[in-house]
Specification:
It is built from 24 helices and 31 strands. It is of the alpha/beta class. Helix 6 packs parallel to helix 19 (about 580-590).
């Protein structure tokens, strides 16, 4: 048989070809025990005595898929991963990453044993120690640091690939700070979410993608949905088959673009200009829904023309309510005023059903006008011809898109991996909110907007689980600042305990991050895999994957419209431990183990039984497992749609499109600002003429699966460029090249690709130094923050793709 099996699978020789990788990657000194994976793949003789059983779990939360998996175990080894049978076959999903886990969890990239640093931090030199040694030393160090610098001197960060329990509870147990605002995936949401009150800064869509079958237009901007949302891609094709027009706006000819009815190329970083041009056309052609605007938006609200402030009866005095949230003392959160069309008088907006959409008057000696009138005036410079010059999209095409969108029902599908990573993404998100408010494309079948990912991130049906409550004295410290600011601003943090790769995944400009880590007193990394951050740790502690457990079941969560169970598939591999076990061991050393669940089973049972939702509280793990570990959420027959009653989650219960807090920045209504770096007129372009697209891919989940041998046969870190740009630099496919920015450099192979827009280069996220020729992609990326971001819902966005580079022969 050839290297590839007859069925197209991967041969055993390929399966083990990087065995022993762990010893090399970790720089182990004097390590004993298992530092190679050879024994896991030693030839075995099948026999009738080999036990075979089926177990059920779920896969990655971080991609939003939460695919329910059916796992075959033979002789104690995971040998097959398949989609799990569900009540609806649309949720029987898996991708190559899930299939590859039968190799990946045994792979040489696993963090296999506890390690202690013996060289300089970042030098990547470690020695193997026991779990007891590691935990004793770590807890003693934490006690000493907190005694000297205070409880908030410890920072606990949690990534979803590294476990579910410990980070959420350990932060409170230690009285530590958490990661807080990260700057990731909040570009569009900062501008969009305040208008509707949903999304928390992440632009979570107002309906799920199944709703697209009722759309006339699905306009995808800044989202490569068919690649980055693989488990949900079926919804795209169902909508297309149902007659929805699928249009993708993207600088590059992406996977989603090639499956759409139309691809509209756009200059990177100019999404706000496209939306502003569309708004102008909708206004000029009166394509808006006047009845919706009057009844359900802030467009009729009056504004003091001189100050720009909304006209109120009074400024509400805020007090702390029973639930701990800020509420108005007199119960009136939004005493806004409108002009009554019938009487011409200024009245409270709740007191009339005939608010004027347009009008200017004098109120208490001040000249006031409606938000709508201000919008019309502010939009005057943003003609479709102007938008065409900025975006390179023809004006007639912008007008056509505006007309199609306004006719509705339309879905506006945004993404987290494209324009969202630009410094002006908040302006784009705000302009999107204006488009929705003008046309009423929300709350009805086929009309929705935001990032469509799946139930794991809130756009689908979700179960409300109970919470394990700690004694009241165990409270997390107040967050001093966003963790990206901790790298450069004075703060209390002296120790970082990180579940999952924090250093190389969550910050741009890695040079700053490395300098910060060098200054800390303690860095502890806990991860199933030896990722880039591990090199900068004092201790590396190996965690189990979702397939391994020392209990019958370990967690229950909401998948895409389903409740899914993490059952034990196999025993923990190597010396890996569950994060639940680690948490209890830390608490034992702190003398407070009794505040935690006695077992993972107790934890899961409490999440179910303590739910405030009767549909969930009646469930038991056994009930869910009777359905192969996947149980439908309530009401999933129809796509979930928010705001069907047009009651938005804002103080006025309307779409509050006027952002008074943005007045100091001129962004009370969206106003064009270019990117901070990747603009055509930036003088830096003379040295770094290419915009670096740092986008998601079907081959990885962020920087996970870099080390998967099977996935490496399909993709390794490569920069893609248009052949026109390559020819100008004398480059050919396969050449080793150096990518440089003002912040650093990385070496990779290059690949000619006509799908890439000239003037750009594409490098998939997660290109860390063990999987490039040299260096880490985050050494290139932009971390500059905009001042207005600090007054926005989720804090400044980290503009990873607002980055200029040059590519040259290495």
């Amino acid at each position: 048989m050839s290297e590839k099996s007859q069925s197209g699978g991967i041969s055993r020789r390929s399966f083990v070809k990087t065995a022993g990788f762990a010893a090399g990657i970790t720089g182990l000194v004097g390590a004993a025990g298992m530092t190679s994976v050879q024994e896991w793949f030693a030839p075995v003789t099948a026999s009738a005595e080999d036990e075979e059983h089926i177990a059920y779990t779920f896969h990655q939360y971080h991609c939003g898929g939460m695919c329910p998996l059916k796992c075959t175990v033979r002789g104690g080894r995971l040998v097959l991963v398949e989609p799990n049978r569900c009540t609806d076959d649309r949720y029987e999903t898996i991708c190559l990453k899930g299939i590859s886990e039968v190799q990946h969890i045994y792979g040489s990239g696993r963090a296999q044993v506890p390690l202690r640093r013996i060289g300089e931090r970042g030098e990547n030199k470690f020695e193997q120690i026991s779990w007891d040694e590691a935990l004793d030393e770590i807890v003693n160090a934490i006690k000493e640091i907190q005694q000297q610098h205070g409880k908030n001197s410890v920072l606990v960060t949690l990534a979803d690939e590294a476990g579910a329990y410990t980070g959420n509870m350990l932060q409170a147990i230690l009285g530590a700070q958490g990661r807080g605002k990260t700057g990731i995936d909040v570009g569009y949401g900062n501008g969009f979410d305040p208008a509707i009150g949903l999304g928390g800064g992440y632009a979570t869509s107002s309906a799920e993608a199944r709703d697209w079958v009722d759309s006339k237009l699905v306009l995808t901007v800044g989202s490569n949905f068919c690649e980055s949302s693989l488990p949900n891609a079926r919804a795209f094709f169902e909508a297309k088959e149902a007659g929805a027009r699928m249009v993708t706006v993207d600088p590059h000819f992406s996977t989603t673009a090639c499956k759409s009815d139309e691809w509209v190329p756009i200059e990177p970083g100019t999404d706000p200009a496209l939306f502003l041009g569309m708004v102008s056309h909708i206004l000029n052609q009166k394509l808006y829904d006047e009845a919706f605007m009057k009844a359900h938006t802030a467009f009729p609200f009056l504004v003091d023309i001189e100050t720009g402030k909304l006209v109120r009866d009074h400024e509400p005095q805020m007090v702390t309510g029973k639930d701990g949230k800020e509420v108005p003392e007199d119960g009136i959160a939004d005493p806004y005023f409108v002009i009554d069309e019938t009487t011409g008088e200024v009245v409270a907006y709740q007191s009339t059903n005939s608010a004027a959409l347009s009008g200017t008057t004098i109120y208490e000696g001040r000249e006031v006008c409606t938000v709508f009138d201000l919008l019309v005036d502010k939009q005057k410079p943003y003609t479709t011809e102007w938008a065409s010059q900025v975006t390179t999209i023809p004006a007639h095409k912008i007008e056509e898109l505006a007309e199609q969108y306004a006719s509705g029902p339309s879905a506006l599908a945004l993404g987290w991996g494209g324009g969202d990573k630009m410094s002006n993404a908040d302006v784009a998100g705000h302009a999107c909110a204006i488009m929705v408010a003008l046309t009423g494309n929300i709350g009805r079948p086929g009309a929705a907007a935001g990032v469509f990912v799946g139930g794991a991130f809130g756009s689908g049906y979700a179960a409300k689980f109970g919470v394990w409550k700690l004694p009241e004295q165990y409270v997390a410290a107040k967050q001093e600042m966003a963790s990206y600011d901790m790298r450069t601003k004075q703060n209390s943090v002296r120790a970082v305990i990180s579940f999952g790769d924090d250093l190389a995944q969550h910050y741009g400009n890695m040079g700053k991050s490395e300098e910060w880590y060098r200054s800390l007193d303690l860095v502890v990394m806990l991860d199933p895999y030896y990722t880039e951050s591990c090199k900068w740790a004092d201790y590396v502690l190996p965690l189990t994957t979702r397939f391994e457990n020392d209990a019958d079941y370990g967690d229950v969560r909401t998948g895409y419209n389903n409740i899914v169970m993490q059952n034990k598939v196999i025993d923990p591999l190597f010396e890996a431990k569950t994060d639940f076990w680690v948490q209890r061991e830390i608490c034992k050393r702190l003398g407070c183990a009794d505040i935690l669940p006695s077992s993972p089973e107790e934890f899961v049972n409490r999440k179910l039984s303590d739910s405030e939702d009767p549909y969930v509280s009646r469930l038991t793990p056994e009930t869910i497992n009777n359905f192969n570990g996947v149980y439908p959420c309530e009401g999933i027959e129809e796509p979930k749609r928010n705001f069907v009653d047009y009651k938005f989650l804002t103080s006025s219960k309307r779409m509050d499109v006027y952002y008074e807090n943005m007045l100091p920045y001129g962004q009370e209504l969206p106003a064009w600002v270019p990117c901070s770096e990747a603009t055509n007129d930036n003088p830096l372009r003379e040295k770094y003429p290419l915009q670096l697209a740092n986008v998601r891919t079907r081959f990885h989940i962020h920087n996970q699966f870099n080390d998967s041998v099977w996935m490496q046969e399909l993709y390794t870190s490569t920069v893609d460029m248009n052949p026109i740009d390559m020819k100008a630099r004398g480059l050919s496919t396969g050449d080793a090249v150096t990518i440089r920015s003002d912040r650093g450099s990385v070496k990779v192979r290059i690949h000619g690709n006509e799908a890439i827009r000239p003037g750009s280069a594409r490098l998939y996220e997660g290109a860390t130094s063990d999987f490039t020729l040299e260096g880490n992609m985050q050494s290139l990326t932009n971390d500059a923050t905009e001042a207005r971001g600090y007054d926005q819902l989720a804090g400044p966005v980290t503009p990873f793709s607002d980055t200029l580079v040059e590519v040259q022969q290495a």
